[in-house]
Design goal:
CATH topology of the largest domain in chain B: FAD/NAD(P)-binding domain
Helix content of chain B: 25-40%
Radius of gyration of chain B: 23 Å
Order of helices and strands of chain A: EEHEEEHEEEHEHEEHEHEEEHEHH
Oligomer: heterodimer
CATH architecture of the largest domain in chain B: 3-Layer(bba) Sandwich
Strand content of chain B: 15-25%
Largest sheet of chain B: 5 strands, parallel
CATH superfamily of the largest domain in chain B: FAD/NAD(P)-binding domain
Bound molecules: flavin-adenine dinucleotide, iron/sulfur cluster, FE2/S2 (inorganic) cluster
Number of domains of chain A: 2
CATH class of the largest domain in chain A: Alpha Beta
Strand order of the largest sheet of chain B: 3-2-1-4-16
Number of domains of chain B: 3
Low-confidence stretches of chain B: none
CATH architecture of the largest domain in chain A: 3-Layer(aba) Sandwich
Distance between the termini of chain A: 29 Å
CATH class of the largest domain in chain B: Alpha Beta
Helix content of chain A: 25-40%
Mean pLDDT of chain A: 94
Structural class of chain A: alpha/beta
Largest sheet of chain A: 7 strands, antiparallel
Number of strands of chain A: 16
Chain lengths: ~280, ~475
């Protein structure tokens, strides 16, 4: 317990990188896995993907978007502060082997979640096309790292401030077409907002390209005890924390996942307002 | 020795409780505990029966009569040490044991509705010792053998305490951020105050048990590696994976498993939302499916969260409800409505994906089934609809699938319960198991008994091994 923060950095307006000491996670981590952290005694447990590990220093790197109560507070911590709890690695590791030509589609903070997979897949001998997107250029993260890891990196922004003007899924479509006459894309992995993953699945469906989506349902324990993270895969209830987080994107009921993620929205808003009020009073 | 009757039974000394109107507004203990005077009076009612039936029916055969005799003469310290010989967590068992089916149920005075209040006596003594800072005294003769205990519920706690007393180096591995298992995450504070659980856990620290939180055996270390590193292993991983009812609409917002509901409320303290960060949402009407302790706990938590109408939806009748008598009585006093002989058929949502109604079947009771209770039978064509924005499913739970997947070498039955022999050893030498991981949904006291028995088996095995080498 008590994981010291060795590095914290603002990557873009809402995205932060945090590196914490977590020997038991660093030792066993495999790409695709996540941790659940709790900042302090009154904190909530939230899942975050492990973006990188430093086995020698026994640290892990998490990249997160400050969207709510917990992630906002996390973004205000400093080097030398502590994160009280960190359990993991949780979830199943990604399947990493030589598939051939692979496309990895990351949107928003999902870029951070897909980054370890891009690296691992490249290392396993795949020709990886990384397709990354954000609302605008200033919100795009890990561009440099992605370019170093992937054979090819394509960018899309909603407002056209960088790369393709539009969605990553359009770039994905083009990429599939481009590779059609040179062996084809043999696997697509997508991590990002639910609507993006749903759209990516629809792009690859007609091509019958195996497509993997990593689901970010609401979680509490992360060990199969609460059922909060349940999602329907081919009509069957699965627990994302222990059966996933990756699933066959063509079988996921994305609408249901999206709906369930709104369950605590009103309360989350209340928590954020309260947090902002307390923060102001402190100043 | 001439048997001296202290008193001829008489009436049970009533336990003072928070009034229902008051208590549904807080999470503090419902029973207020006996005073010194009351506890002595209650103890003096004991008939000191020949054969001591109450002890025979306590699963760990606690020395109840000796305890009662000491209480009667106000020697609480002695009573405490007597209890502690058999029971490492009396403040807990005294509060949560199904006494009516065990020690108290066989007391001759129980027939008249005035059985000796053994649980409350036990809890009094334990609380008294805690307040006075009195602890069991023993010398630990350090041994070098290492034993791993997986899970920190009552099975793991009791196993660890005994192993430590034998002198072994004990490490408990716990997946959650707090130790205690169901005692911590499941049973609400108004039944089992959090400070009591924390106190028992801090005692483990004091006697030198190493507790590693946030550590899931199977994920953080392979089960096979753990076997190599330790001289013996005890598995007390419980049965914490929820069962779902599997009817249409189960994915609607507003449908919880009892585990999620209770983990949010108890472990994460969602009842103090804003002070604590974890939220819970409930509608105006909530239906809890099931009628065991878990269902009563969820229903009573819901009342305390401010829900106006709380229903227990049960397919049998109150008579067959498996919850402790005290829980059912408390729940009804507090305003929980028990709807008998009904069973959900489907959950109906609004256009935003929120639960809005539940369609139910009426049921009737048929012949006795394997559980010894009458089988509930659906009455065809009896469907009706109740307005309800929240559902909590309390249908029981299963051993953790994740752990079993990571330890495929363990033999389990078709319900995923770990198979053990008479010494609680699994088919793997040196690996023992007990509590809910072996029994399915059982009780605190049975888990505790298993932990103690396994510790004794482990001790025997290690001693034997020493003698042979
Ligand atoms: C396996 C897994 C891996 C994840 N990895 C990352 C990661 O690497 N980086 C990262 O920034 N986020 C990640 N997430 C999402 C992250 O857990 C949530 O953003 C976080 O719980 C928000 O907590 P909060 O208290 O700050 O916000 P809350 O107040 O809880 O929520 C704020 C807003 O975010 C939405 N939200 C709530 N929970 C989630 C969720 N689980 N996923 C997405 N949106 C949510 C809410 O609807 C709300 O609009 C991951 C989720 C899962 C399940
Ligand atoms: C809401 C509720 C109310 C109840 N009320 C009563 C009552 O009034 N009276 C009564 O007698 N009984 C009651 N019970 C039942 C009783 O709590 C259980 O029978 C008892 O707790 C079982 O103890 P255990 O030690 O076997 O497991 P648990 O208490 O379930 O503890 C198991 C622990 O192991 C941990 N774990 C699991 N897998 C791993 C792993 N791989 N690595 C590390 N840690 C792991 C879990 O996180 C958990 O903390 C109730 C149960 C519930 C859920
Ligand atoms: S441990 Fe439980 S069954 Fe045994 S005497 Fe105490 S309350 Fe009764
Ligand atoms: S059965 Fe009842 S009366 Fe008899 S010894 Fe036990 S507590 Fe006393
Ligand atoms: S997070 Fe609790 S079961 Fe998955």
């Amino acid at each position: 317990m008590n994981h010291i923060i060795v590095r914290i950095k603002n990557l873009s307006r809402e995205n932060f990188l945090i590196e914490i000491k977590a020997p038991h996670v660093a030792e066993r981590f495999q790409p695709g896995q996540f941790v659940i952290i709790r900042i302090n005694e009154t904190g909530e447990r939230i899942p975050l993907t492990v973006a990188d590990v430093n086995r020698a220093a026994k640290t892990i790197t998490l990249i997160f978007q400050a969207v709510g109560r917990t992630t906002m507070e996390l973004s205000t911590l400093n080097e030398g502060d502590f994160v009280l709890n960190c359990v993991g690695p949780l979830g199943n590791p990604s399947e990493i082997k030589k598939f051939g030509q692979v496309a990895c589609v990351g949107g928003g903070t999902g870029i951070a979640c897909i980054y370890p997979l891009v690296r691992a897949l490249a290392k396993a001998g795949n020709e990886v096309t990384a397709i990354i997107g954000a609302r605008n250029e200033s919100m795009l993260i890990l561009e440099k790292e992605m370019k170093a890891a992937a054979a090819k990196t394509l960018i899309a922004t909603d407002d056209g401030s960088k790369g393709h003007h539009g969605f990553v899924t359009e770039v994905l479509h083009k990429t599939i077409e481009t590779y059609k006459n040179s062996g084809g894309i043999s696997r697509v992995i997508t991590i990002g907002p639910i609507p993006m993953m749903k759209a990516a699945a629809e792009v690859t469906r007609p091509y019958k390209i195996p497509t993997i989506a990593s689901l970010n349902t609401i979680m509490v324990d992360g060990t199969g005890m609460c059922g909060s993270c349940r999602a329907y895969i081919d009509g069957v209830m699965k627990l994302v924390c222990i059966d996933g987080p990756e699933f066959d994107a063509h079988k996921v009921d994305f609408d249901d996942v999206l709906s369930r993620m709104e369950m605590f929205k009103a309360k989350e808003k209340q928590a954020v307002e309260n947090y902002k009020k307390i923060s102001l009073e402190k100043e | 020795m001439k048997k001296k009757r202290i008193d001829l039974g008489g009436y049970r000394v009533q336990m003072q409780e928070q009034s229902p109107e008051k208590r549904i507004k807080n999470f503090q203990s419902v029973p207020l505990g006996y005073s010194k005077k009351e506890v002595v009076k209650e103890a003096k009612r004991c008939l000191q029966c020949k054969g001591i039936p109450c002890e025979l029916d306590c699963p760990i055969n606690m020395k109840i009569l000796e305890m009662i005799r000491e209480i009667a003469i106000e020697n609480f310290e002695k009573a405490f040490f007597i209890i502690k010989e058999d029971n490492p967590i009396p403040a807990i068992t005294g509060r949560v044991c199904p006494q009516e089916a065990q020690c108290e149920g066989v007391c001759p005075l129980y027939q008249r509705g005035h059985g000796i209040n053994i649980g409350k006596l036990e809890a009094f003594v334990a609380d008294w010792a805690r307040m006075k800072g009195i602890k069991e005294k023993f010398q630990i003769e350090e041994k070098q053998q290492k034993v791993a205990v997986i899970g920190s519920g009552p099975a793991g706690i009791s196993c660890a305490v005994d192993l430590r007393k034998f002198g072994y180096q004990v490490t408990i591995f716990e997946a959650l951020h707090k130790a205690g298992g169901v005692l911590q995450y499941g049973i609400p504070a108004f039944r089992l105050p959090t400070e009591i659980v924390d106190y028992e856990i801090s005692y483990l620290d004091e006697i030198g048990v190493d507790i590693r939180l946030d550590f899931f055996v199977g994920q953080n270390i392979k089960f096979s590696e753990l076997r190599n590193e330790y001289d013996a292993i005890f598995i007390g991983t419980g049965a914490g994976a929820p069962l779902f009812i599997n009817i249409p609409g189960e994915n609607l917002k507003g449908v919880y498993s009892a585990n999620e509901f209770l983990i949010r409320v108890n472990l994460m303290k969602a009842y103090k939302f804003l002070e604590f960060d974890t939220p819970i949402v409930c509608g105006e009407t909530i239906g809890v499916i099931g009628a065991g302790n878990v269902a009563m706990d969820a229903a009573r938590c819901a009342l305390r969260l401010g829900v106006e109408k709380v229903y227990i939806l049960y397919r049998r009748t109150k008579k067959e409800a498996p919850a402790r008598d005290e829980e059912i009585q408390h729940a009804l006093e507090e305003g929980v409505v028990l709807k008998e002989l009904i069973s959900p058929n489907k959950f109906i949502g609004d256009d935003k994906g929120w639960l809005k109604e539940v369609e139910l079947f009426k049921m009737e009771l048929g012949d006795t089934d394997a559980s010894g209770r009458p089988r509930p039978i659906k009455i065809e064509g009896s469907e009706f609809v109740l307005k309800m924005e929240t559902i909590v499913e309390a249908l029981g739970s299963m051993p953790n699938r994740l752990f079993l997947n990571k330890a495929p070498e363990l033999e389990v039955n078709k319900w995923g319960q770990i198979k053990v022999d008479d010494n609680l050893m699994t088919q793997i030498p040196g690996v023992y198991a007990g509590g809910d991981a072996v029994r399915g949904n059982a009780t605190v006291i049975l888990a505790l008994g298993d932990g103690r028995q396994a510790a004794a088996s482990i001790h025997k095995q290690i001693e034997q091994h020493k003698a042979e080498t």
